[in-house]
């Protein structure tokens, strides 16, 4: 667990692989007075991740790590996290699975957002699965990361109604809007704010 000490903000690293819209919402949240966090680092396993641009826009340190050799990448990441005094990791559209060893080192300090009402529809292609399964509701979940995929303790969730004519794309869009609100909410919640 991460604890707030006085008024000092918790230093967060956000891990991304793609668009980074959740990263953007977290950066905006971090700039609010009520926010207990500051985004100190953006990490990506994808050199071309569009979201890396937010590093330039908001002047946040950004780093790319090649995950071809995962053990080495994680070793380097741990070092940079230590050097930057990072205390909390937010996975936001990060498409790599972190090793058990890595997760152990940051136990209780890694969060993830997933675009379904977990424990339903873990893994990839969530929206397709929801639609094919004729679910009435989908949604999103922020949870702690443990060594099993999308399975750690749930912090909070938001339901989204599935419409009759929804495609995976239209559903993803509506869920994403809720994700942007849910991640900041989850962070306030873990600090009892
Ligand atoms: C989000 O739907 C997130 O839940 C999922 O990947 C998507 C990433 O979107 N894991 P973005 O990169 O934050 O825009």
Quick description:
This protein has 193 residues and is α/β, with parallel strands linked by helices. It has helices at residues 21-30, 53-57, 70-83, 100-105, 126-132, 168-190, and strands at 10-16, 37-44, 61-64, 88-91, 110-114, 137-144, 154-161.
Structural descriptors:
seven-stranded mixed β-sheet, 193 residues, alpha/beta, Rossmann fold, binds 5-O-phosphono-beta-D-ribofuranosylamine
Instruction: Please state the overall shape, judged from the principal axes of the Cα atoms.
Output: globular
Q: Can you write the helix and strand succession as a string?
A: EHEHEHEHEHEEH
Beta content comes to: 15-25%
What would CATH call the class?
A: Alpha Beta
General description of the model:
- The protein is of the alpha/beta class.
- It has 6 helices and 7 strands.
- It has helices spanning 21-30, 53-57, 70-83, 100-105, 126-132, 168-190, and strands at 10-16, 37-44, 61-64, 88-91, 110-114, 137-144, 154-161.
- Strand 4, helix 4 and strand 5 form a beta-alpha-beta unit.
- The mean pLDDT is 96.
- Bound molecules: 5-O-phosphono-beta-D-ribofuranosylamine.
- The site of 5-O-phosphono-beta-D-ribofuranosylamine has 14 residues, from helix 1, strand 5 and helix 6.
Describe the secondary-structure layout.
Blueprint: E1 10-16, H1 21-30, E2 37-44, H2 53-57, E3 61-64, H3 70-83, E4 88-91, H4 100-105, E5 110-114, H5 126-132, E6 137-144, E7 154-161, H6 168-190
The structure holds 5-O-phosphono-beta-D-ribofuranosylamine.
